Fold this sequence. Notes:
Layout: H1 3-18, E1 25-34, H2 41-51, E2 61-67, E3 70-73, E4 79-81, E5 98-102, E6 106-114, H3 116-120
Parallel strand pairs: 1-2
Antiparallel strand pairs: 1-6, 3-4, 3-5
Helix pairs in contact: 1-2
Amino acid sequence: MHEANFTEQIVSTILNELKKYPDDRPRGAKVLVGEMLHLVPESVHMHYQLLTRGTPLEGIALDLVEVPVKIRCNHCGTEGAVEDHHLLMCTACSTMNVKLVSGNEIWVEVVELETKEQKVS
């Protein structure tokens, strides 16, 4: 299960970012996950719960958002989705001479924090 490795990277990235804000408490995190990575959200969430025990992330929601595969055709210039992400082919001219634009990334987009000022209010 490759979800464990990706989830470990996600947790590590968020915890490292939190070190910059020692007085703030995390409230949630949003992670963009490329369709080509074939991550199973339930598995990621299970690993996340295990990996965050005893950390500032314990009990904090993890929002996974799938990023669809998008290509740019090197032949005709068409940019857009593909019919099958296992076969990267231009839908306009049917060439496989394409560049992957998105759908193979994993990115911690947002870590929502509760600041001291928010706690006092």
